[in-house]
From TrEMBL:
The keyword Calcium applies. This is Solute carrier family 24 (Sodium/lithium/calcium exchanger), member 6. It is a multi-pass membrane protein. GO terms for molecular function: calcium:sodium antiporter activity. It comes from the Eukaryota. The keyword Mitochondrion does not apply. The lineage of its organism: Eukaryota, Metazoa, Chordata, Craniata, Vertebrata. Keywords: Antiport, Calcium, Calcium transport, Ion transport, Membrane, Transmembrane, Transmembrane helix, Transport. Residues 28-54 are annotated as: Disordered. One of its GO terms (biological process) is calcium export from the mitochondrion. One of its GO terms (cellular component) is membrane. It is found in: Membrane. Pfam families: Na_Ca_ex.
Length: 357
């Protein structure tokens, strides 16, 4: 499974590289063969008069320039830290309704904790969201959060040779790195290694998401025990919806913003990631712990319904999409929804022994 995922990633990267190269070469050929010269911004009448066009300036830059101080002003380190930990934007707060403000107040403690633990690198900002005191603090809090959250804090209380706790060693290393970053950088200019904080933020976010997913699975398992539901029913309904609802809304938002190709790629890429990498790593971890091979239950009609529905959906998509010249319309979306409803009904009826061999 892991090898298949590596092959899939390499295939996608190589295909994208070849496609972009062919596209750029085709565009260059069209531009060279065109008898009309390109109109650059320097050919416009505004530039000839020395007056820049307002459309050339981003709206966000114009908006932020309204709130910049007229005189040079340098914030203190303590003020930078406090403002970085404040998730409330005063300009947005005044324009939002009361319901939004109440919900924001309820989320405030969680957002402050996330700001304390997860560094954010924003390439759209001039300083890339560099906050010297907060980023230095992240080198202390982020490793500790990963240590105490990963696998429910299994490694947090372990001792090194029964004398020194692991969390103490992680704390000392974090303090050492934070002191180096704080003493060798300034508040105004981000260091060259600032993009590495994005990697740190990704790792912490992944650990927190994994911990939240583990708790959700435990709650669903408890719900199944209370309601006498099998693991198959939970996996088909609550667990599947809980795992996919975030990706669903993210893909819908991306498509509505004008990036349908990215949304479709995320749909297929997420499924392949969960199947190949998730199952592959899960099986490897299980085999390491139990020192035995993982055996799947192949008996029963439900197993064949699950495998057959997955294979049939992929085969139909493989046939329908090329026939429509890779243009996905409303009919294809309705077809997928109907297919999922039929699959879910048949699977549940089979699980409750209404449909049986």
């Amino acid at each position: 499974y892991l090898a298949l995922y590596v092959i899939y990633v390499l295939t996608v990267i190589i295909s994208a590289f070849i496609y972009n190269r062919q596209k750029n070469s085709a565009n260059a050929t069209v531009r060279s063969d065109s008898p009309f010269p390109e109109l650059n911004s320097s050919d416009s009448s505004d530039d000839e008069d020395g007056i820049p066009s307002l459309t050339d300036v981003p709206v966000q830059q114009i908006y932020e320039s309204e709130y910049r101080p007229l005189l040079p002003y340098s914030e203190s380190t303590s003020h930078i830290l406090l403002s970085s930990l404040n998730p409330v934007d005063n300009r947005r707060w005044r324009r939002k309704p009361l319901s939004w403000k109440v919900f924001k107040v309820l989320k405030l403690p969680l957002e402050v904790l996330l700001l304390l633990c997860i560094p954010v690198v924003d390439p759209d900002k001039e300083d890339r969201n560099w906050r010297r005191p907060l980023n230095s603090l992240h080198l202390i809090t982020a490793p500790l959060v990963c240590l105490f959250v990963f696998q429910s804090g299994k490694y947090g209380n372990e001792m090194i040779q029964d004398q020194f706790p692991v969390w103490g060693l992680v704390l000392l290393l974090g303090l050492f790195l934070a002191a180096i970053v704080f003493c060798t950088t300034t508040n105004d200019h981000p260091p060259k290694y600032h993009p590495l904080f994005a990697l740190l933020g990704f790792v912490v976010s992944a650990v927190l998401i994994s911990a939240a997913a583990s708790e959700v699975v435990s709650l669903l398992h408890m719900l199944g025990v209370v309601l006498s539901l099998s693991n198959t029913v939970l996996g088909l309904t609550l667990l599947a919806w809980g795992n996919s609802i975030g990706d669903c809304f993210a893909d819908i938002t991306i498509a509505q913003q004008g990036y349908p190709r990215m949304a479709i790629s995320a749909c297929f890429g997420g499924i392949i990631f969960n199947m190949l990498l998730g199952v592959g790593l899960g099986c490897i971890g299980q085999m390491i712990q139990t020192k035995s091979n993982v055996q799947f239950e192949t008996e029963g009609l439900l197993t064949w319904i699950l495998a057959g529905s997955l294979g049939l959906s992929l085969a139909l998509s493989f046939i329908i999409i090329p026939l429509n010249n890779f243009q996905l319309g409303r009919k294809y979306g309705i077809f997928l929804l109907v297919f999922y409803i039929i699959f879910l009904v048949i699977a549940l009826l089979t699980e409750f022994q209404i449909i049986h061999t």
